[in-house]
Amino acid sequence: MKNLEQEEVRQWVMKQTANLDPPAGWRPDPAAALMRFQARVETDRPLGMSWRWPAWAAAVAMVIAVVLLLPAGRAVAQQLWQLLTVRQVAFIRVNPWPEGVPSPQVHLSGTPIPPLPARDVDEARWRVRYDPRLPRPGVLSGSPRLSTTFSLSAGTVVKAADLELALRKSGVMDQTVPPQWDGAQLALHTSAIVIGEWPDIAFAQSLPLTLTAPPGFDFAAFSALVLRVLGVGTEEAQRLAQRAGTAPPWLAPIARDIKERATIEEIRLNSGPATLLQELEDDGSVKRITLVWSVPDRVYLLSGKLRRELAIATANAVE
Amino acid sequence: MRSSPDIPVVTRKIESTDDFSGLFAAHYAALTRLIYRVTGDAGSAEELAAEAFWKLHRQPPASNHNLAGWLYRTGLRLALDNLKKRKRRSHYEAQAPVPQAMQSPEAILDQIERQVRVRQALAALKPKQAALLVLRSEGYSIGEMASLLRLRPGSTGTLLARADRAFRKEYVNRYEEP
């Protein structure tokens, strides 16, 4: 009898722990890990902290750091938390966070690991488990160096008191922060990222981003309020917060004080709308162009020192 | 289930880089998969597995007997510590899986919820009990578990049965479902 009971418990526990099975097809890569390990041994420094992130990672980190700016058009009541898919990307111009108010702390989960070189598209596909897309050959000269990253996650905890103070410091007196927002945890997740690099140009792609938040959390109201803190007018904040309809856009803030040195432009690609950011040198020449756009199953970022026309042609040639 | 064959028990001293590379090649993937079961995140699993090797490299144990066991115990301890810290820091942080094509949000949420429950119950167990359950779920035999966790083979089955009961009790207390 006792043995029967023990066996029943064993079977039940095994069924539960089977939920922890790694994804089918996931194979840790010892060779790549050993290369990273040997690099660490050579430098004898803590892994991750000394890696110099390339431009794409800085861009991803910057965008992740604005997780607070993600509005949603729907509040999905889920048992555990909301899970929303971000399918649009855009830059918006905002004021800096008010001085004297603690800015939201955003933490990346895990230690960022530099991209792993991939021999070819097949290897990149095998690692990220989706089909990487690249511009048609001939649009950019030469073949890209490919690499892949792991997924990235970043989160923040809403502090109602700080947000309230930020509102007042920004001169917003007609809004208050619902107390139930205090302590709400928000997180943004990317899929594994594929990066193609040509000289001076980087092209990164991810599956649509995923956003998680506590059940019932009103992203639209929250985002509108944060946008107000950052100097966006009432009506514009409401419009931006609601404009996505069924999916939140990914809004990357550009500080207003770089107005003289950057332009933001909404453009039209063959696949749909895109946002083009041009950063300028002091003499007016183009320092960097960043083009961000999305299709239903991908988010793309093209960045580098290239002409506007070439950036658009490259984006239109992605297949 | 683990894809690699039997886990060899390393009993000799690591005397050269080649030895270390061999140890890495033999155990890295299996250890990373085990850690993934605890953390649920491929990136942190790779990172923590590398950290276990790093500890072995920097501060190897006094005895060179069964270095693989040392590695697995260290890796699992790092993973369980990470799970507990994460639980304290943020209940939800990094629990979501990588978005995958063809999975609906509802299916992902359901999967996440089941995984979170199991991991929270595991985090509440004694580390050795949690390690036993994780190793078994990855397909390790009683003998292998005993070797890796430095247990007496004769008592490992009993400890495992105790771990089963502790897990079920913890799970039922938390979620009120058998």
Helix and strand run of chain A: HHHEEEEHEEHEEEEHHEEEEEH
Most extensive interface between two protein chains, with residue counts:
A-B, 61 and 63 residues
Provide the low-confidence segments of chain B as ranges: 3-16, 89-101
Give the helix tally of chain B: 7
Report the average pLDDT across residues of chain A: 72
Strand tally of chain B: 0
SSE order of chain B: HHHHHHH
Order of the strands making up the biggest sheet of chain A: 4-5-8-9-15-14-13-12
Strand content of chain B: under 5%
Structural class of chain B: mainly alpha
Sheet with most strands of chain B: none
Radius of gyration of chain B: 17 Å
What structural class results from the helix and strand content of chain A?
alpha+beta
Helix content of chain B: over 70%
Shape category of chain B = globular
From the alpha carbons, calculate the radius of gyration of chain A and give it in angstroms.
22 Å
Record the SSE blueprint:
The complex is a heterodimer of chains A (319) and B (178).
Chain A: H1 2-17, H2 30-43, H3 55-64, E1 82-86, E2 88-94, E3 106-108, E4 116-118, H4 121-128, E5 145-148, E6 153-157, H5 160-169, E7 185-189, E8 194-198, E9 201-206, E10 209-213, H6 219-229, H7 234-242, E11 249-255, E12 262-269, E13 272-280, E14 286-295, E15 298-304, H8 308-316
Parallel strand pairs in A: 2-11
Antiparallel strand pairs in A: 1-10, 3-6, 4-5, 5-8, 6-7, 7-10, 8-9, 9-15, 12-13, 13-14, 14-15
Helix pairs in contact in A: 5-6, 6-7
Chain B: H1 17-39, H2 42-58, H3 67-89, H4 105-124, H5 127-137, H6 142-149, H7 153-175
